[in-house]
Design goal:
heterotrimer, A mainly alpha, B mainly alpha, C mainly alpha, A: mainly alpha, two-stranded antiparallel sheet, two-stranded antiparallel ribbon, C: mainly alpha, 0% strand, rod-shaped
Chain lengths: 255, 121, 197
């Protein structure tokens, strides 16, 4: 095995952060990295997808306009069916989250592209956006009465603190669950993909016998790649659907 | 004298009739197609939300325990009560994790002030 | 280029023959960053740029995508609904026109039939009148002819008697040599005729 190969086969190397434009403010490093680059690539692609095909405002959509409209309708239906018409004011947020996560996940499937969602800070940031929106919207709509969600009705007095503590922890676990799920799925999937690919390369480097032996892992790599595409789309969907469910709590805590 | 107008109207009359029948058929087909599309959409959503539920179950429990442990550890660090709050909050976190799972599975309602069922529109 | 953030991961490039396990552990051994996603040193950068990029996307979606795509979809929904409404309205109108046309057609047919019927009746009665007129004329002629024939026959019969009387007169004269008056002969003929009858 050559040095070059060895470097390329490291399953963790794909998550390496590289500084592209160093920016230092005070003691903190705000460098523009390859992660930042792919965030903007994803954002730009979403913008292009939504902007270009719809510029004609055609009543009979072309193929690309159809895709843009399908994505829009999909997110709109998801939000409407979970929260009802009241929740539609959160549509820009849900749609942005869905498209951003989807685009980042799918971009990560291409070789040499960085999977932005395999960075826990990124997914945690997105989850915090959701949770803060839920809290702010809830308080704005119901005032301080919103905090009653932590005090379930019909619970006898003495154990209210206990139940409330559990409810608070449960609520706090939401952003953790939301971000860790996305992050772990993308990270694990990509590592697995790399490990199998590396296995194929090192086996076939061993000669004729190795090439024959590499057929099985190669098939596995293809299967995992297909699975990863599915997981990429599904995780974006799960993220968006849970956002809708959490937003529903903020909208529908009526007295 | 009698048959004249009849003969003249026979051609256009039949053609018109056919066109009207075709139009009615097309409208009916369009409506049926829309209905089928709605049902397919509903099915697809149901399948996808099934996957979503499965993915939820996988992390919701761990997240509850993790938050409990983190809070316990933090309070211990602040109040200097080292192992005790960690144990308490770990238990609470465990309970919260179970609650999360039961909620994800739809066995318990989402936390709400009133008794309004979730998802009614 | 690849400086501070990448430092911990880059050494793997320099390891000549990497044993996969050890290679991963090299950075851990160095203690600073174990794994890029958990490398807290890079977090401020990620946070800053995700806020900027995602914020950009959110504003874009809110300002451009929702009005535009939502507008397109709404337009289409309205258009389809109005088109379908128009189609059903036209269909109703067509039905009305067709039923009116059919009613008119039936009325016209009825009228045409009644006109034809009336004309037929007229012709028939005219025909009947003419026929009866002709028949009457014919009957009259026949009757006249019969009267004439009867008169002629009577005259002829009278002549026959006369001839028979003259013949019998001549026969009697020839046979007996007696002359027979013509009146006697006539009455004898009449008697014989009555006896024959």
């Amino acid at each position: 095995m050559a040095v070059k190969e060895g470097g390329g086969l490291d399953p963790v190397k794909q998550f390496e952060v590289k500084e592209l434009i160093p920016i230092q403010i005070g003691d903190i490093n705000f460098a523009f990295t390859n992660v930042s680059l792919f965030m903007f690539v994803a954002v730009a692609l979403v913008m292009l997808l939504m902007l270009l095909p719809t510029s004609g405002r055609a009543n009979v959509p072309g193929r690309w306009q159809n895709i843009a409209e399908m994505a829009y309708e999909f997110a709109a239906n998801m939000l409407r069916s979970t929260t009802g018409p009241d929740g539609m004011k959160f549509f820009p947020l849900v749609f942005s989250l869905f498209m951003f996560v989807l685009m980042c996940n799918l971009l990560g499937m291409f070789p040499y592209f960085y999977t932005v969602t395999s960075q826990i800070v990124v997914t945690f940031f997105l989850a915090m956006v959701v949770i803060l929106t839920v809290i702010i919207a809830g308080i704005r709509q119901h005032g301080l009465a919103w905090f009653q969600v932590f005090v379930p009705s019909g619970v006898p007095g003495p154990i209210i603190p206990l139940v409330s503590a559990i409810e608070v922890i449960s609520f706090l676990s939401r952003p953790i669950s939301l971000s860790v799920r996305l992050f772990a799925n993308m990270l694990a999937g990509h590592i697995m993909l790399k490990v199998f690919a590396a296995f194929v390369v090192s086996l076939s480097a061993m000669g004729a016998l190795g090439v024959v032996g590499a057929i099985l892992p190669l098939g596995m790599t293809v299967a995992i790649t297909a699975l990863e595409f599915l997981v990429s789309a599904l995780q974006a969907y799960v993220f968006a659907v849970l956002t809708c469910i959490y937003l529903n709590d903020a909208v529908h805590t009526h007295h | 004298m009698i048959s004249d107008p009849g003969d003249a109207s026979q051609g256009p009359d039949r053609e018109l009739e056919e066109r009207r029948a075709k139009l009615a058929k097309q409208i009916a087909a369009h409506e049926a197609e829309e209905e089928a599309q709605r049902q397919a959409d509903a099915r697809a959503t149901a399948t996808a939300s099934g996957y979503a539920q499965a993915f939820r179950l996988s992390t919701d429990f761990v997240a509850g325990v993790a938050v409990g442990a983190f809070l316990g550890f933090g309070f211990d660090w602040v109040f200097g009560t080292t192992p005790w709050l960690l144990i308490v909050f770990l238990l609470l976190g465990f309970a919260a994790g179970v609650l999360n799972v039961l909620r994800s599975a739809g066995l318990i309602q989402q936390p709400q002030v009133g008794h309004r069922p979730r998802g009614d529109e | 280029m690849a400086t501070a953030l990448a430092q911990e991961a880059t050494p793997s490039l320099a390891v000549p023959i990497p044993q996969t396990q050890e290679e991963v552990q090299v950075p851990i051994g160095e203690g600073e960053s174990l794994f890029p996603p958990f490398d807290a040193e890079a977090w401020p950068s990620h946070l800053l740029w995700i806020v900027i990029s995602f914020g950009l996307l959110y504003i874009f979606v809110k300002r451009v995508v929702v009005p535009r795509v939502g507008g397109i979809l709404e337009d289409r929904r309205d258009r389809i609904a109005s088109d379908r409404g128009e189609a059903s309205r036209l269909a109703r109108e067509t039905d009305g026109v067709i039923s009116a046309y059919e009613a008119e057609l039936a009325a016209a047919r009825q009228k045409a039939y009644s006109i034809a019927q009336a004309r037929r009746d007229e012709i028939k009665s005219e025909l009947a009148a003419k026929q009866s007129e002709t028949e009457a004329e014919l009957n009259k002629k026949i009757a006249d002819a019969e009267v004439q024939i009867a008169a002629r026959r009577d005259a002829a019969l009278a002549d026959v008697d006369e001839i028979a009387a003259q013949a019998s007169q001549a026969i009697v004269e020839q046979l007996t040599g007696m002359s027979l008056s013509s009146d006697d002969a006539l009455s004898a003929v009449r008697k014989a005729e009555a006896g024959n009858a």
